């Protein structure tokens, strides 16, 4: 049987359906993380982890599995195609979610969450690879930013959805909702997604060939540099995900109303994701992401100084945290597009390498920040400031000291 012909965006689907598929695929990851946040106290009460802060591991286990498994999906997607790999991963996700649903111990839940994250990793790898199959350069950054704009609604509503489920059912029913969402996504992909892998880009699934692909990918200066920069930056974000429920619900005393404060921060991020989709075509990924990174670091540093000086109130925390975190919308999609700029011919493997390193390293950094929580927001804010400084240093090294430039991105169409 001959391989399928190359697929162009206008032939495969409309731009808006592509964005919709990317949104729903990545939304499964966000829902799997954020819907769990209001349930962490109930999980801790039900399954009795050894220490109070260990309930954060329900998030961390998912993130580590999510990062590690991306190394596998890249070569599989480059060999067998995008569609069969994502459908197989969704079936695996369903099995892991069922184990989460019936877990009788905290350790079993953590193991199942690891595999649930490992299965969900395919959504990130395949979504990025599909976008790179059909677009490139600023066009890819535009599509990814538009997808991110809609996607950012998910973190706004996900904790509230989790809280709503908890109002009418036990915490295990959150996994029932995730199972239904994954099934709906699988049906959409079965009937609407064509195979987007270009036949000439299919690569053999042999150890030496896989190592050669990863060696080629990690040997690219932009991919390596922006992968490490993304890992450092996302460490601060994952620290927020780990501690958000404890900071809002316990430290500031919001209790069950914590999803409202979380939504305020997530909503700020969605605004700049839309702004990025409108500006990236004119200004480029570098100018937007580098400027946003400096602003993020400055705001986080000032916030840490304010809290250390004893000025700590809920309204001030929300305003300053939202001001910093909203800049994520100008950084995340652009870092991803810059990392993939030179590696379109191995998009699946390159996307996997980016996701693995940024995900695993970021999750470990975020877990470290989270475990420092002791009824204070200072470890989170200070950790984000430090990670911002580290990210700036890595970007400077990657770009050879030339920030806010254009590079080759304008011609990578």
UniProtKB/TrEMBL annotation:
Q: Residue ranges of the Major facilitator superfamily (MFS) profile domain? A: 18-400
Q: Where is it located?
A: Cell inner membrane; Cell membrane
Gene3D superfamilies, per the entry: Multidrug resistance protein D
Q: Which UniProt keywords apply?
A: Cell inner membrane, Cell membrane, Membrane, Transmembrane, Transmembrane helix, Transport
Instruction: State the similarity comment.
Output: Belongs to the major facilitator superfamily. Bcr/CmlA family.
Q: Which NCBIfam families match?
A: efflux_Bcr_CflA (TIGR00710)
Q: What is this protein called?
A: Bcr/CflA family efflux transporter
Species of the source:
Hyphobacterium marinum
Q: What is the lineage of its organism?
A: Bacteria, Pseudomonadati, Pseudomonadota, Alphaproteobacteria, Maricaulales
